[in-house]
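User: Let's play a game. I give you a shape written as tokens, and you guess the letters that built it. Ready? Here's round one.
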């Protein structure tokens, strides 16, 4: 018998001999609890011939079988469809549309003839029925249950014998043998482990809905994300109808795919080609607008960046941004003032994107700079122009990732002029683009426009 550490962190498994309020590994507060005092030595067991280790070169590979969920954008994120026995954790902020999307997945699977079990721990059966009526998800092969007891849910899975199981949500389910409150780290760990084991044994795909914390991470212990096969995150602004689904972990496919959806009064609708969602509908070119080609996973999307530059009414000029990184906008403003000779220190600057999308990649720097310069000079940029590039503090334009893919998407959408790292300096890019905008404008538009 050997003495084992008496306290263990429920988040990361870190152990210590004495109790501490904060985990020394993951730095979480209140997660260190008592964990057994004695640990037994484990004797090596005999290994059957069928389970003996073999050279990796002698093993045969077989692609995991998949079946489509009926929603192409969701299948794109999963890597082609649902894998039998796979456990998918779907997380997102409250009200983003997790339950609506998974109910649509359940209805599609039931419509194809598969038996589906949808277990709701947050809503009653009548509430789920009303939402199903509104979204057109009424199917005879879709079975509903409102349970929060783990043993009862496992019994429902055994008696129903479904081909797809959906649990909404894992934080509401509790194991009666565990005295902790539902949603606590130990409860979430026990529930997730039991449901995962049941899904693997029955070879049935399992979709789990997970809550998120204030910082956007999945609530509960980190072991929850290790237990599941796929972690899909629902992202979207409540003020807009657009929703993105991204996979941060996927054992059966890539993690750089993005599914695009739109919330409507009749439920959630997939958007296979969102190229027009982030562009304005103006028939004439407007000063202060520039289009960039942003990457969402492997998908290239045209996004319009709008800027407004007006004389400051206070001693401290305002810098207001929406949909872009405020620190990068501040950097672009400094570069424009230093290297492009734009006097912006006495002006209020407002920068925003169209459609509520968020641009976080540095490839949007050039479009932000051109939109600000266009607004400052009151000159509309050419309509057929798309700008992609990262701006350095030295005023240089660096190539963004996947330039060929962005350029191909720009050509497909009719943008014949693609400004990128082919222009070495931001000063030259701004000067040439403003000059091209002046050439396309009528003489009346050139009155009272200062020289560059």
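Assistant: Ready! My guess for every position:
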């Amino acid at each position: 018998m050997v003495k084992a550490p008496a306290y263990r962190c429920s988040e990361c498994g870190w152990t210590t001999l004495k109790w501490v309020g904060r985990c020394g590994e993951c730095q979480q507060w209140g997660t260190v609890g008592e964990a057994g005092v004695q640990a037994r030595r484990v004797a090596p067991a005999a290994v059957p011939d069928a389970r003996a280790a073999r050279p990796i070169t002698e093993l045969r590979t077989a692609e995991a079988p998949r079946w489509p969920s009926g929603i192409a954008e969701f299948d794109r994120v999963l890597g082609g469809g649902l894998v039998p026995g796979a456990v998918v954790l779907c997380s997102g902020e409250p009200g983003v549309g997790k339950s609506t999307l998974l109910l649509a997945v359940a209805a599609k699977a039931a419509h194809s003839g598969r038996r589906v079990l949808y277990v709701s721990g947050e809503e009653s059966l009548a509430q789920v029925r009303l939402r199903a009526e509104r979204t057109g998800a009424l199917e005879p092969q879709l079975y509903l249950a409102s349970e929060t007891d783990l043993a009862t849910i496992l019994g429902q899975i055994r008696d129903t014998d479904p081909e797809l199981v959906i649990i909404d949500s894992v934080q509401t389910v509790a194991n009666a043998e565990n005295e902790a409150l539902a949603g606590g780290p130990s409860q979430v760990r026990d529930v997730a482990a039991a449901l995962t084991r049941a899904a693997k044994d029955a070879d049935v795909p399992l979709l789990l809905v997970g809550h998120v914390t204030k910082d956007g991470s999945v609530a509960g212990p980190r072991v929850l994300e290790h237990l599941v096969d796929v972690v899909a995150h629902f992202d979207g602004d409540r003020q807009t109808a657009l929703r993105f689904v991204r996979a941060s972990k996927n054992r059966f496919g890539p993690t750089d795919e993005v599914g695009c959806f739109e919330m409507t009064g009749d439920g959630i609708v997939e958007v296979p080609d969102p190229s027009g969602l982030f562009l304005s509908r103006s028939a004439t070119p407007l000063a202060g607008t520039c289009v960039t080609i942003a990457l969402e996973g492997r998908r290239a999307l045209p996004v319009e960046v709008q800027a407004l530059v007006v004389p400051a009414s206070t001693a401290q000029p305002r810098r207001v941004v929406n949909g872009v990184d405020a620190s990068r906008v501040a950097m672009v403003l400094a570069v424009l003032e230093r290297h492009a000779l734009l006097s912006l220190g006495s002006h209020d600057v407002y920068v925003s994107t169209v459609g509520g999308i968020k641009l976080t990649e540095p490839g949007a720097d050039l479009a932000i700079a051109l939109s600000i310069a266009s607004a400052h000079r009151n000159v509309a940029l050419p309509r057929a122009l798309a700008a992609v590039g990262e701006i350095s503090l030295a005023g240089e334009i660096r190539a963004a990732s996947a330039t060929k893919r962005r350029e191909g998407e720009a050509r497909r959408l009719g943008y014949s002029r693609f400004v990128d790292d082919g222009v070495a300096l931001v000063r030259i890019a701004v000067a040439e683009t403003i000059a091209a905008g002046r050439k396309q404008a009528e003489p009346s538009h050139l009155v009272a426009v200062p020289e560059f």
